[in-house]
Amino acid sequence: MIKEAIGIGSTIEEARENGAKELGVESYETEFEILQEPEKKVFGLFGGCPAKVRVFIKQTPVEVAAQYLKDVLAAMEVTDVEMTVTENENAAEINIEGEQIGAVIGRRGETLDALQYLTGLVANHVDNSYYRITINTSNYREKREKTLEILGRKLAFKAVKTGYKTSLEPMNPYERRIIHTAVQKVNGAISWSEGESIYRHVVIGPDPNAKPSYHKGGYNKNKFGKRSYNNKPRYNKSQNEMSDSPKREPINEGAEFGLYGRIDNK
After folding, report:
1. The domain containing residue 231 runs over which residues?
2. Of 91, 114, 118, 119, which sits with the fewest C-beta atoms within 10 Å of its C-beta?
3. pTM score, whole prediction
């Protein structure tokens, strides 16, 4: 992306400095093109013209994204923060640290997700190509992912044990995929998504095609010492792990892309 301005002055250097001021940068940070050489007046009275130059700077997607994020945070009156940018191929992570982080994260990360989504849109308009922006703060993304993995596995084991399904709260596609992946690691449990748009959520329930696991021996002794046959499936964590089960691919609700990347609604 090229940001430019026209600078005018009595000399080329003065015109460049005026153009740089308009862009909000120092003149040495810019490149320039001379549009008009300065001409002195004849006898100090007639004719003459000032210097005119085209001053411009080339901005990368992450530079534009970082500046946009700073402007939005300033509008939110979140000013006491530090931003660190880590760039990768066609992607970058912007990490925010400071005392006002709570306002940046919002309820269950909703504000952070919205900021990431909008900043990503701005970055993708720079060169009209896909550029992934991730915004993180105090390792919130990693902590949230771990929490969702634990939740998914817990509810999957519960579905196997009780035979009932559980509906989770609405989540974005990336977080839904974390849940799906966690459930895939538990035999006898499945997950799917229901709802549309912002109301789309994950449902975890027992797999109707899974083979029930029985208690070894098929019977127990009751309090009277008699053997009573029990055909009810018993929950056994080791039998419900993925180690001896066929490979199942996780539902694609985010794939290898980050939050709000190129995704499929599943």
Report:
1. 142-244
2. 114
3. 0.60
